[in-house]
Amino acid sequence: MPLPVWSVPPPLWLQLGIEALWLGTVGLTAECLYRFKLASSEIVRKVVHIGAGHVIVLAWWLQIPAWVGISASLVFSAIAVCSYYFPLLPSINSVGRQSWGTFFYALSIGILIAWFWPLHKIYFAVLGVMVMAWGDGLAALVGQRFGRHPYTAWGIQKSWEGSLTMAIVSFLVSSLVLGSVQGGDWATVGTIAAAIALGATGLEACSKFGIDNLTVPLGSAALGLGLETWLGRF
Predict the structure, then answer these.
(1) Measuring CA to CA, which residue among 141, 137, 79, 134 is closest to residue 107?
(2) Could you tell me which residues come within 8 angstroms of residue 187 by beta carbon, excluding any fewer than 6 positions away?
(3) Whole-angstrom distance, CA of residue 195 vs CA of residue 144
(4) Which of 56, 144, 192, 207 could be joined to 212 by an S-S link, Cβ 3.0–4.6 Å?
(5) Residue from 79, 73, 80 nearest 59 by CA
(6) What is d(CA 123, CA 1) in angstroms, rounded to the nearest whole number?
(7) Number of Cβ atoms within 10 Å of the Cβ of 226
(8) Measured distance CA(175)–CA(111) in Å, rounded
(9) What pTM did the predictor assign?
(10) Of 154, 25, 46, which is closest to residue 91 (Cα–Cα)?
(11) Is there a contact between 88 and 103 (Cβ–Cβ < 8 Å)?
């Protein structure tokens, strides 16, 4: 895991403080946008969706222990469930909203940490979350704003513009993460990134009730790990 530059990881209180500061900044930004009606509710949700995902990049950089990340995931998953019944996160969820995306989001981060931290392949956890955060987040915004060519997959209406955005962004994010941990074999990186982009786009297109916040990150990370093992290049 090449990203960390610490000879000795920062103390736990500093690790938690940096993560809390980042989440606080994301939450405050979303709350201001929501309270002062500076953006639509969908944009506010995507600000949180994209911004919150970067906690795993910070966790990688700070070398946060797996148990801390898993515990935080469980806490935020519980808060997410409660927010569907009580106005705990009004800028993100509406009470009774027919999507469990926020819960799946928090849960997926915990699963990825539990999976890839012990393997010392943290970059696949980062890749999965970043594909979900940026790919899914921008695909939704582009599809709603510029989607002019709809299609239906498994009874779900999507747009080709949104799916194309998902594929392109997923490819770029996967290339960036994988490229940061290998020695310059960009042909292999591009092959794996392209496969991840196609897989993530398919999973996102067939999702209901926010389940893509679970299937996209887990599927992307699993596909990347499988291809890396098969190719044996990194």
Answers:
(1) 79
(2) none
(3) 25
(4) 207
(5) 73
(6) 7
(7) 12
(8) 22
(9) 0.91
(10) 46
(11) no
Angle, helices 212-231/160-179, rounded to nearest 10 degrees: 50
**Residue recorded with tokens 């705990």:** 88
The DSSP bridge pattern shows strands 156-159 and 150-153 to be antiparallel
Backbone angles phi and psi of 55, in degrees to 5: -60, -30
Residue 52 to residue 46: CA distance in whole angstroms: 10
Closest CA to 134 of 53, 28, 29: 53
Phi-psi category of residue 123: left, alpha or beta, with phi > 0 → left and psi -120 to 50 → alpha: alpha
Tokens for 162? 């949104």
- Which tens digits make up the pLDDT trace of 96-151? 445 688 899 999 999 999 999 999 999 999 999 999 999 999 998 998 888 888 88
> What's the N-to-C CA distance of the chain in angstroms?
12
Contact by Cβ (8 Å): 156, 206: yes
Q: Is the pLDDT of residue 183 over 70?
A: no
Burial class (CB in 10 A: 0-12, 13-18, 19+), 227: middle
- What residues contact 28, with CB distance under 8 A and at least 6 apart? none
Residue 103 to residue 107: CA distance in whole angstroms = 6
DSSP character at residue 7: S
User: Residues 189-229: pLDDT tens digits?
Assistant: 999 999 999 999 999 988 877 899 999 999 999 999 999 98
Name the token pair of 19. 């993560």
Would you state the structure tokens that stand for residue 2, as one six-digit string?
A: 């090449």
Residues paired with residue 152 on neighbouring β-strands, in sequence order: 157
Alpha carbons 36 and 13: distance in angstroms, whole number: 33
